Amino acid sequence: MTTNDNDGLVVLAVDDEEPALMELAYLLEQDQRVSTVLKANDSISALRILTGGDQVNLGGFGTPPQGLASPAKQSDVDVLFLDIRMPGLDGLELAQVLSRYVIPPSVVFVTAHDDRAVEAFDVGAVDYLLKPLRPERLYASLTRILASRGTTVPVEPAVEEEGDDEVIPVELAGTTKLVQRSTVRWVEAQGDYARLHTTEGSHLVRIPLSVLEERWSDAGFVRIHRSYLVALPLITELRLAGSGYVVRLGNGNQPGEVAELPVSRRHTRELKDRLVRSTKQAWGRR
Description:
Layout: E1 9-14, H1 18-29, E2 34-40, H2 43-50, E3 79-82, H3 91-98, E4 106-111, H4 117-122, E5 127-130, H5 135-149, E6 167-172, E7 175-180, E8 184-190, E9 193-198, E10 201-205, H6 209-216, E11 221-225, E12 228-231, E13 235-241, E14 244-249, E15 259-263, H7 265-284
Parallel strand pairs: 1-2, 1-3, 3-4, 4-5
Antiparallel strand pairs: 6-7, 8-9, 8-12, 9-10, 11-12, 13-14, 14-15
């Protein structure tokens, strides 16, 4: 389903814990870009809503129990906000079932557990939200969904509150480490993955650089090369070196404090403009 000029998103919230489900539904209903919020307390009920009460095909995940159907049709639901740990068919298994649809709805996981993020993105999740859910984080997730759908529904810009800092779950040797965006100095593309470089080291995440470029643009990150995304405030120097420009990050003398990265010709003008605008804005606040 493609949202048109007059309709908002039809959202299905799925959580086996009633208080959490009610809170999620309430927050979704407060967003003017959402037209309808449907609710389900387990995956089987969610599938019945998605299929309009027709026979549910789990594709090898088991046989659904008897239950009431919902009047909604499959194509009516745009997005699922889905808990992961639920009895019976869990959220990840439900997402795998949905991935077999010709036009699957977008999936956003909302969970209290930070150890399943890699699996969540493996099954095509658009976002991964941690409980307790913050309204501004939910707003940003809906903005991302609308952008990915190419919708024409008016989207008001989200205002990032002071101290609001996106957290990126990183899987390392069976341990999930939460890396704050504010600690990332630059990002390097590695195929369908991206390597986050921080002052403490680097972390490989299964997120394409193009996705981070879009998500972090408002947070001051700028693309300087097909392989590099950098935090604009950390650039201390832009200079011509050989056949092209390079940027310098940091001023220290300790290992890891300074990095020099190439700037491609197609990104040079934009980078210069961004640096000039950021400088003017900084002086304007004084």
